[in-house]
Amino acid sequence: MNLRIIKIVSSVFLCLSALIMSCDNKKVENKNIVEKKVIISKEIETPKGMIWVEKKTFLMGAKEGDKYAMSREKPAHKVEVDGFFIDAHEVTNKQFREFVNATKYITVAERPIDWEVIKKDLPAGTPKPADSILQPGSLIFNKHAKGVVSMANYGQWWKWQLGANWKQPEGPGSSIEGKDNYPVVHVAQEDALAYCKWANRRLPTEAEWESAAQGKFEDNIYSWGNKYEDLNENANTWQGTFPTDNRTEDRFEYLSPIKSYPPNNIGLYDMAGNVWEMTTDFFNVNYYQTLDPTVVQVNPKGADKSYTPSNPYQTEYVIKGGSFLCHESYCASFRISAKMGMEPNSSSDHIGFRTVATKEMLKK
Fold first, then answer.
1. Contacts of residue 92, Cβ cutoff 8 Å, sequence gap at least 6
2. Which of 14, 65, 276, 326 sits most deeply, having the most CB atoms within 10 A of its CB?
3. Distance separating alpha carbons of residues 49 and 13, to the nearest angstrom
4. What distance in Å separates the CA atoms of residue 127 and residue 174, rounded to the nearest whole number?
């Protein structure tokens, strides 16, 4: 069952699936990073808005000294990843609008739910819900969450919002007017792949994403270094008491515009916080434990199949980087090795994506 089905069967299941799932607009510029065209060959130069990531070998997974590392990030292992281009920032509302205008594409969150299709995945005899339940929508963070009893009950800060989509991120009456430079959200993996096809790009593998986040580093915990104390200066996350009180010590309460924080050492913005970013790898909590730590993995593409104990029958894909909702008390996914799972038909207001391209793709 995908997330849209689960919302019909049980609000409890919906909320559990949701786990996988403003202030100052001033842009912070790193004066040591100068965007420039890099000539990769006589035929290819860096596409506009992208950064070249050099081929390198680095340590993937949990790093020594990372107190927040989870078992699915262990053990750390060496990987070798070929060079590639990656977007300097997440795909924005403006970029996604250009795609929609050119193709007339309709996102998953904008489509009515087809009962005849989804009932095939439900237990026999499941009654058809009211038509109002079968309307388009997406998950949004409940900004009015109060009286949280257990951090295991994610339904206390998530809710299904009819009419929420990339153009109306908080539901009917909301809009993205004046937010061209914000990451597009409420996109499912299907939507991101459609954008990639149009733009002659693809989503990164998890190894490529970590290679980009490391930049010139090889074994750092964070995209800016190894000091947790520098978090608020480098990422849009949650400070205070999650999910009821955000002290906005990083200047933003919820989503922030792209380039609001300094880039990493190769010029990539928001590789930590703001929105989760999609990859092509299956999410499998046991995958790293199946690898031989003495063998360097070359251009790995992840596990052969998806697996997570809390959702064993649903395919999930790895998302990376954390979001504006990440807090050390339950998530701490602003680390390079951190990962969570996302169902391919799911969407929410804290998941987006960025794209990559290879030399071979650009030659076509």
1. 180, 181, 182, 183, 184, 258
2. 276
3. 39
4. 33
- Cβ-based neighbours of 187, under 8 Å, separated by 6 or more: 96, 107, 108, 109, 166, 195, 347, 351, 352, 353
Give me the domains of the chain, ranges plus CATH numbers.
37-104+179-363 (3.90.1580.10)
Strands 245-246 and 240-241: antiparallel
Which pLDDT does position 43 carry in this prediction? 66
Q: pLDDT (tens digit, 9 = 90+) per residue, 109-142?
A: 999 887 887 777 667 888 887 776 778 999 998 8
Q: Which two tokens stand for residue 76?
A: 């750390």
Concatenate the DSSP letters of all residues of 113-131 into one string. P-HHHHGGGSPTTPPPPPG
Burial call 125-144: b when 16+ CB within 10 Å, e when fewer: eeeeeeeeebebbbbbbeee
**49 is written with which tokens?**
């808005």
The bridge status of strand 276-282 relative to strand 297-298 is unpaired
Q: What are the tens digits of pLDDT across the range 45-99?
A: 899 999 999 999 999 999 999 999 999 999 999 999 999 999 999 999 999 999 9
DSSP letter, residue 290: G
pLDDT value of position 149 = 56
The pTM assigned to this predicted structure is 0.86
Element (H, E) at 17: helix 11-17
Contact 258, 89 (CB under 8 A): yes
* Cα distance between residue 7 and residue 172, in whole Å: 19
Extract the residue ranges of the chain whose pLDDT is less than 50: 1-3, 5-35
- Which region holds residue 270: left if phi is over 0, alpha if psi is between -120 and 50, else beta? left
Phi, then psi, of 276 in degrees rounded to 5: -60, 155
Structure tokens at 308: 């997570």
